[in-house]
Specification:
12 strands; 403 residues; four-stranded antiparallel sheet; globular
């Protein structure tokens, strides 16, 4: 398994020097400053490669840009509205430029409007560490009383609406502002920063897009990009919904195993694959992560290894980001399933036998709390998770146990 680390570019408070000391082999990055729908030029791509390749004193870092996360799919493409055809062509142009630069794995998602949703970005645990958390009552309070979304009442039970009203009444003005910001935070480092009015406008534009229609639009997108990826030697890998449940009246179509089975069959090419994110999918109790790796592993092009602790047994419930080996996903079983898939690929002579993974998210511990890097992306918390994962990989690989 190839060890990688997410880096948000020169403004990231976790530097290339820091990452090099963590001992990883590759970098996961993106051109976050390029507005969605614009072409990633070869010049910009090469500049990011150069930034990754050098430490602050000019010495070579030996790190390479292994995975793009993410090459964003525009809302116009998802809705098939506005400039969606032009955005498809710029997406394809960006793919060509990435292939020319030798960056061959592209992670993306098809989540409408918000790329991920949390209600707390620094939830304090009993240990003193902080982490990201999703609280359904807080989210309902946001949806009903801050966003005031039309039709929101229909999405929550009577008991949850009452609990949300009480929670909202207890909130200070600062907490209301913070909650709104947390929910619309979106992709870390993204060019877009949504206001509440932006979200309302996007939601209005999605009123006629149900799950069936969004899936049809995704199939059309895949038909345009997957054959080109196959031709260029690229690997496309779709990230799951996060969290994997409908929110804000928006459809979610990448939340369970059957969704990803549909995905790989929609355009049945090896280039059309999956980012298996154990944290996103693990927020649902009905997702079997080791089993998904076993059954869909030949199309898994990228792994996000993180864990969450579900605070209820409900499919739609509270959860928080746990330590990598301490949440509800059996991380040891998942890593062993990934190693077994790598062994199958080596036996088949596949060039992509070494699956890239990154220690996804992490709790803010020790000096992380002073550094205040991107939420979910601390230096020490991720390094702790990576160390734990390295131990699992080493133990599972010993004496051929992964075969």
């Amino acid at each position: 398994m190839r060890q990688t680390w997410r880096w948000f570019g020169p403004k990231d408070l976790v530097s290339i020097d820091d990452i090099r000391q963590a001992g990883v082999e590759g970098i996961v990055s993106a051109l976050h400053h390029v507005p969605t729908g614009n072409v990633w030029t070869l010049k910009e791509i090469e500049q990011r490669k150069a930034e990754i390749a050098a430490m602050s004193d000019g010495a070579p870092s030996t790190l390479t840009w292994d995975v793009v996360e993410s090459l964003p799919v525009s809302e116009d493409i998802k809705k098939q509205a506005g400039n969606w055809r032009a955005h498809l062509e710029t997406y394809r142009d960006s793919m060509r430029n990435l292939a020319t630069a030798g960056v061959n794995t592209i992670c993306y998602n098809f989540m409408p409007v918000l790329d991920w949703t949390r209600t707390d970005l620094a939830y304090r645990l009993p240990t003193g560490a902080t982490c990201m958390r999703f609280d359904l009552t807080d989210f309902a309070a946001f949806d009903l009383h801050i966003l005031e979304r039309v039709g929101a009442e229909e999405d929550f039970s009577d008991a949850l609406r009452e609990a949300a009203s009480r929670r909202f009444a207890e909130m200070s003005d600062d907490r209301k502002t913070q909650l709104a910001r947390n929910v619309v935070f979106g992709l870390p480092g993204a060019a877009e920063n949504f206001s509440l009015e932006d979200v309302r406008q996007h939601l209005d534009e999605y009123r006629t897009v149900d799950a069936h229609r969004l899936r049809t639009h995704m199939a059309a997108f895949l038909e345009e990009v997957a054959p080109l990826a196959q031709e260029l030697g690229l690997r496309l890998c779709c990230h799951p919904d996060d969290p994997p449940i409908p929110l804000l009246g928006l459809p979610r179509i990448m939340s369970v195993e059957t969704d990803f089975t549909w995905l790989v069959n929609a355009v049945d090419l090896p280039a059309n694959g999956i980012t298996l994110c154990s944290g996103s999918l693990g927020a649902r109790p009905d997702n079997d992560l080791p089993g998904m790796m076993d059954r869909l592993g030949d199309r898994v092009h990228f792994l996000h290894l993180r864990n969450v602790k579900r605070e209820t047994d409900q499919i739609r419930g509270d959860f928080h980001e746990a330590e990598h080996l301490a949440g509800d996903t059996d991380m040891v079983a998942l890593v062993r399933a990934a190693l077994a898939e790598e062994a199958r690929r080596r036996a088949a002579g596949r060039a992509d036998a070494n699956i890239p993974f990154r220690p996804d998210h992490g709790q803010d511990i020790l000096d992380d709390q002073k550094r205040q890097a991107q939420p979910g992306y601390p230096a020490i918390g991720r390094l702790k998770g990576l160390a734990e994962l390295r131990g699992v990989i080493a133990a599972s690989s010993h004496a051929g146990e992964a075969a």
